[in-house]
Design goal:
The complex is a heterotrimer of chains A (360), B (362) and C (496).
Chain A lengths: L1 H20 L10 E3 L2 E8 L2 E11 L5 E10 L2 H11 L3 E3 L5 E5 H6 L2 H9 L8 E5 L3 H6 L7 H14 L8 H8 L7 E8 L2 E11 L2 E5 L5 H8 L5 E6 L5 E16 L6 E15 L6 H29 L6 H6 L7 H7 L4 E12 L5
Parallel strand pairs in A: 1-5, 2-6, 6-7, 7-8, 13-14
Antiparallel strand pairs in A: 2-3, 3-4, 8-9, 9-10, 11-12, 12-13
Chain B lengths: L15 H9 L7 H9 L3 H26 L3 H9 L1 H33 L6 H16 L3 H13 L3 H5 L20 H15 L5 H4 L10 H25 L2 H6 L3 H6 L10 H32 L3 H18 L3 H38 L1
Chain C lengths: L16 H8 L5 E6 L6 E6 L5 H14 L5 H7 L6 E3 L2 H10 L1 E5 L7 E5 L28 H9 L7 E8 L5 E8 L5 H12 L9 H7 L12 E3 L2 H10 L2 E5 L5 E4 L17 H30 L7 H10 L7 H21 L2 H22 L4 H13 L6 H39 L1 E2 L2 E2 L53
Helix pairs in contact in C: 5-8, 9-13, 9-14, 11-12, 11-13, 11-14
Classes of the chains: A alpha/beta (360), B mainly alpha (362), C alpha+beta (496).
Chain lengths: 360, 362, 496
């Protein structure tokens, strides 16, 4: 009997002490200021301006937008400063988009991204992007019926699925950023009047922004990077006609030779698509052959120009270094980095036109 | 030498599979990839295979000893080294088990504190977990096995989640294969020791198994299960993270869970961390059961009282390890001891036992 | 002073029958009269409220009046009863009189008498089962009389191996308790355990079999029932054939079945009367409903209080706007709603049926809507709590419904303390408790742990009868096979 009483007393005291001292911080849903997007602008060498947009849930189920701005040296400090302005606790767990202005990106975003890395409540699927002008300008406006963060993330995600943008999220960015031989890239967003749109791809060297990819090179960039499932390509033919090829599927295969001395990389890209629009008269076999040949030529030229510019700037967003590394024993990073500008990289494109729509 | 255990406290041999596998698959899973990859990079999966095979050999060694002895670790020690030295060695082993349990519990609480609740004080949570451990261990070995069984079966759904990161993976990261020297692979095995540890408790619960000889195959199956799971996770990790990134991430498994997105739930690592509490419970339970039973046999004390004292010690030490650095140090220290215990001491014991056996036979 | 504390001269040995009858005459309903006429005078005594007057008038008095008898043997021969007892054992006379026998003496001072059983058997008629109602299948239910119940069981198992062991339990109620089992199938350990526990029972009043269930349970502090009670004789017959032990008590319309495993709490006997596919689907739905009922409110509280990151952004809009203007944290909201539903249930149970139904509907709808409009609770939580309450009643065993209602609260409290981690901790404790629990000495969690693959065929799902040729392993029956497996007929090729 005594034993039982002791047991009960112990259990009750444990429960009591746990309830008294074991509490954790509550984060009740509607008492939170859930920032869905954050943008960083450059003020000067030591200060960053951060802007967050958070959704406001109105009773009639529509969503509004509310902006907070603060500046500080460290990006995480800006969050606490943002808290000073907000009636609710600012949390970044639901962050969907992180925007960096071009200025910030030029000076290096490594440190800021590091803070995103360390926080366990940030999702790896966060979309990171570069803003053409000021990030706060983009975030201040309301687009569509969603808050800015949701809108931007949907913009990026939808384009990825439509095959117009290569897969990119925080995880891919961090993978490339932390690697010695690969360089990251991010989507570039521009604001035109009341709308935002995806302008292109921003290329980085380590963590500095160097340049943005030319629009016409975007397709071949994506084709070299990954398998496209739903691409589109516009072709201007020699006879001044235009052809639009859609539903493009691509596959790439890399071949590396001469590993001991100076590696040579040959990339074979297979493109298969359907002609959706053609301004010419008819599409018989001759026409299709023409389209095919000219597309191949065009793509090869674009690829060559693009790769040359990469080599000149010493950036490697496509992962050529990784291709070489995975085939070399005792890979030496420094050796590769020194060799990179002189490596011969050739792209061969093979186009197959599958269908031409429902009319001839 | 000892009274046989009553048959109603015995456990069927099939359950040894879960006992072995459940003990091995523990807190180590969440972070083992990084230490391995630092040494052997993309060949880490080879280290896992090699370690798995070595563990098979160790299990075989243990079974040969135990089958001949029909006892447990304490009796083997006593037979091989005599009463005093044998008991001392058993006691050292028990201290190692206790220290290991502190590692497991504190690592888990740390993960909770980092990933879920930064303000959680260590001692209330440890108190509740230890209370549940008392509840389990005081009900006997059958319940401990039951907890092991359920804690392996219920979180099986987590295995499916390891297939999701494949979407974002690049398996070229695994090439080139065998780019590291054998000595580097050997060095890395030291780190994996802690991840594979858990099978040595067979030495404590062998007398509680019905028809113990037939349970050997289940123990090997358990180890195969663990090895294959580790292999799967390692390969996916290597594909998902590039080497540079992997070197920075402390808990790669949890980072991989971050990428999972289901229609009704987004941040899966929270569910993962919560399920891990269930996975980790039987490990601590069996450790305390073994330790308290060992002390009971050596000093002839009541197992229940010993249990309470051991739980208390564990609680106090857990609260003394406050920051990440000290936890890291402690874990590495225990890991090294574990490596030498498992991979060094068990073969040594095996040899000594057989020498004695042959000598006695003469 | 001594007057007040004068002890009754009771408990003195009632050495004579005469003294006994005098004592009884202090009760108003004891009849004791002398039949002086011919041919032979006799004395009759009985408890007027216990006997069936018809039998007295029709079967006893006429025969006694007609026949001439000189001794009690003659009385016995004269009466058309097969079990007339002639005795002078006072204890037996007491017991029999109190059970409704008529006592016949030749002379008033005689110590020997004849006892004739003439008890009034007033019990309910055999009707439709109330709790375990099934759409298909027989609709007979047990009643309060143990003889009728035994009849209902025996006619379904007309074999000689069906054994009935009788006990009398309860110092005040002297309830007849019967233990049924099939010899040759049931493991004797189970039977012995039950009989042992029953004989060891020290209790004053057994009013219902559920009291027996609580008294002989392995762990009286657990909220999980360790013996299932049922009011269907077909279920009893079914489990007896599987190898269980059944306890029937007089005055109780429920029979107790043991040993059970946790899967038995999800099995309705109706499952055997429908197709195996439907039965399996329904069982799975029940398991899901129970876990849903226990877990969904705590998960709501946990996610909204601590884990906002888990909610997908589309669902976020609904949840945040539903929680707009609500002054209470989610845990208090949930507790208030749960308590309201419990109030409704209790109130509905106490009121007479007609009023009770109205209160239930009015209470539910009106209070619910008003609470949402007043901004005290959110409509999402209201739906969740209502669904959980509904889901808790899908278990065929009524007791389990109560268990689930209660189980929800610790989960809720722990969810408020530590969010999802708290739910995991609560789950751990629940798991350990179930692992430790035993039913008549057998592990409660049987087909799951210790894992018995063969028993799984009748737990979460029900496989067709052709696959169920062995009895459940956990009952450790002596005879393992139900019926011999037929040789599978050869599979013919098409059009052959």
């Amino acid at each position: 009997m005594m034993k039982n009483k002791i047991k009960i007393a112990v259990v009750i005291s444990i429960i009591f002490s746990v309830y008294m001292f074991g509490r954790v911080k509550r984060q009740i849903l509607d008492d939170l200021n859930m920032a869905s997007s954050v943008g960083y602008d450059y003020i000067d060498k030591h200060t960053i301006k951060a802007t967050t947009a958070r959704p406001i849930f109105k009773p009639d189920k529509s969503i509004g937008n509310k902006i907070f701005t603060a500046s500080d040296e460290l990006s995480t400090q800006t969050f606490s400063k943002l808290s000073l302005q907000s009636s609710r606790q600012v949390v970044i767990g639901k962050l969907e988009v992180a925007l960096y202005s071009k200025e910030v990106a030029k000076h290096g975003i490594g440190d800021i991204v590091d803070s995103l890395q360390r926080d366990p409540s940030i999702s790896e699927r966060l979309f990171v992007a570069v803003a053409e002008e000021e990030a706060s300008e983009i975030l201040k406006k309301i687009y569509g019926d969603r808050d800015t963060g949701a809108y931007l993330s949907m913009l990026i995600e939808q384009n990825m699925e439509a095959g117009l943008l290569p897969t990119t999220n925080l995880h891919q960015f961090l993978n490339a950023y932390n690697s010695d031989i690969k360089d990251p890239f991010l989507p570039l967003i521009e604001q035109k009047g009341e709308k935002v749109h995806l302008k292109g791809i921003a290329l980085f060297k380590d963590d500095h922004y160097v340049k943005s990819l030319r629009n016409d090179q975007q397709f071949i960039f994506q084709a070299l990077l990954e398998k496209i499932r739903l691409g589109t390509y516009k072709l201007r033919l020699k006879n001044k006609e235009y052809a639009a090829i859609e539903n493009i599927k691509t596959k790439n295969s890399y071949r590396v030779d001469n590993l001991k001395k100076m590696p040579e990389i040959t990339i074979q890209v297979k493109v298969r698509g359907i002609i959706k629009e053609y301004t010419g008269k008819k599409t018989n076999k001759k026409e299709i052959d023409q389209i095919k040949k000219q597309m191949e030529n065009k793509l090869e030229k674009q690829a060559a120009a693009m790769i040359r510019s990469f080599q000149k700037l010493k950036i490697d967003p496509l992962g050529f270094g990784d291709q070489v590394r995975s085939r070399t024993r005792n890979f030496r990073h420094q050796k590769w980095l020194n060799q990179y500008p002189d490596v011969k990289i050739r792209v061969k494109v093979n186009v197959t036109i599958l269908e031409k729509g429902v009319v001839d | 030498m000892k009274t046989a255990i009553k048959s109603e406290y015995l456990v069927s041999p099939f359950l040894v599979l879960f006992l072995v596998h459940g003990m091995q698959f523990g807190v180590g899973v969440l972070s083992f990839q990084r230490d391995l990859a630092k040494i052997v990079g993309q060949d880490a999966w080879i280290s896992i295979l090699v370690t798995g095979i070595i563990v098979h050999i160790l299990i075989w060694m243990m079974y040969t000893m135990l089958n001949k002895d029909k006892g447990d670790l304490m009796t083997i020690h006593q037979r091989t080294f005599g009463k005093w030295l044998g008991n001392l060695l058993s006691l050292l082993f028990i201290v190692y088990v206790l220290a290991l349990s502190i590692t497991v519990l504190r690592s888990y609480i740390e993960i909770v504190q980092v990933w879920m609740f930064p303000l959680l004080k260590t001692w209330p949570f440890a108190l509740v977990m230890l209370l549940s451990v008392y509840y389990v261990v005081s009900s006997g070995f059958r319940i401990v096995t039951g907890v092991c069984f359920l804690a392996v079966v219920i979180p099986l759904y987590l295995v499916l989640t390891f297939f999701v990161p494949i979407e974002f993976s690049n398996f070229r990261n695994l090439l080139p294969i065998f780019d590291h020297s054998l000595s580097e692979i050997a060095k890395s095995i030291k780190g994996t020791a802690l991840a594979f540890s858990g099978f040595e408790f067979l030495l404590f619960y062998y007398p509680f198994i019905k028809q113990p000889e037939s349970s050997q195959k289940w123990a090997h199956f358990g180890n195969i299960g663990t090895t294959s799971l580790y292999l799967l996770i390692m390969i996916v990790t290597l594909g998902f993270f590039d080497q540079g990134y992997l070197n920075k991430v402390i808990w790669p498994t949890l980072m991989m869970w971050k990428i999972i997105k289901l229609p009704f739930v987004e941040r899966f690592e929270i569910i993962g961390v919560t399920s891990w509490g269930v996975v980790m419970l039987p490990i601590i339970c069996l450790m305390f059961w073994s330790a308290s039973r060992g002390i009971k046999e050596i000093f002839k004390l009541k197992q229940r009282s010993v249990l309470v004292i051991l739980l208390f010690i564990c609680l106090i030490v857990c609260c003394l390890l406050i920051d990440r650095e000290s936890i890291q140090q402690y874990n590495t220290f225990i890991g090294t001891i574990g490596f030498y215990t498992l991979f060094g001491y068990i073969p040594f014991l095996f040899i000594c036992y057989h020498i004695r056996f042959i000598m006695r036979g003469k | 002073m001594k007057m007040w504390f004068r002890k009754q001269p009771a408990e003195q040995a009632q050495n004579t029958l005469f003294a006994l009858l005098n004592r009884y005459q202090q009760s108003g309903d004891f009849v004791h009269f002398h039949h002086p006429q011919s041919p032979q005078p006799f004395w009759i005594s009985y408890f007027g409220t216990l006997i069936d007057v018809e039998i007295l008038h029709r079967d006893i008095l006429p025969y006694l009046n007609k026949t001439a008898f000189t001794s009690l043997e003659g009385v016995k021969a004269a009466l058309p009863f097969e079990d007339v007892l002639i005795t002078s054992d006072l204890q037996q006379i007491q017991d029999q009189l109190l059970e409704g026998s008529v006592l016949i003496q030749l002379h008033e001072q005689d110590s020997e008498c004849a006892l004739v059983r003439a008890e009034m058997k007033k019990a309910r008629e055999v009707t439709i089962p109330e709790e375990e109602y099934s759409v298909v299948g027989p609709k007979e239910a047990f009643v309060e009389s143990i003889t009728t119940n035994l009849n209902l069981v025996r006619k379904r198992l007309p074999i000689s191996e069906l054994k009935v062991k009788e006990f009398t339990i309860g110092t005040l109620s002297k309830t007849k308790v019967a233990v049924l089992y099939i010899e040759g199938i049931t493991n004797e350990d189970n039977v012995n355990t039950v009989c042992q526990r029953l004989t060891d029972l020290q209790f004053n009043q057994i009013l219902d079999s559920s009291i027996i269930a609580q008294l002989i349970a392995d762990n009286g502090n657990s909220i999980f029932p360790q013996l299932i009670d049922t009011e269907r004789p077909d279920r009893v017959a079914g489990v007896l054939a599987e190898g269980s032990v059944v306890i029937l008590a007089d005055g109780s319309s429920h029979a107790l079945i043991g040993p059970i495993s946790v899967m038995g709490l999800f099995n309705a006997f109706e499952d055997y009367y429908v197709n195996w596919q439907m039965a399996s689907a329904f069982r799975l739905i029940r398991v899901f409903a129970v876990s849903f009922s226990i877990l969904v409110t705590p998960i709501y509280v946990a996610v909204l209080t601590y884990h906002y990151q888990l909610i997908p952004k589309d669902l976020m809009v609904t949840l945040v706007s539903s929680r707009r203007n609500i002054p209470l944290p989610p845990i208090l909201e949930a507790i208030i709603l749960e308590l309201t539903i419990e109030l409704l249930r209790e109130a509905g149970a106490r009121l007479p049926s007609k009023v009770g139904q109205t209160i239930g509907i009015v209470g539910g709808i009106v209070i619910g809507t008003a609470a949402v409009d007043a901004g005290l609770t959110s409509n999402v939580l209201l739906i969740i709590v209502a669904l959980a309450a509904l889901a808790s009643f899908t278990t065929p065993v009524y007791r389990m419904g109560n268990t689930i209602r209660l189980l929800r609260f610790p989960f809720l409290l722990l969810a408020d303390l530590w969010g999802l981690l708290g739910i995991a901790v609560a789950f751990i404790f629940l798991m350990i408790h179930l692992l430790r629990l035993r039913s008549l000495g057998r592990p409660y969690l049987e087909p799951i742990y210790p894992p018995r693959l063969k028993d799984l065929k009748d737990s979460f799902i029900r496989l067709p009868f052709s696959l169920q040729s062995t009895r459940p392993v956990f009952l450790q029956t002596k005879d393992r096979e139900r019926f011999s497996k037929q040789q599978a007929s050869e599979v013919n090729d098409i059009d052959e």
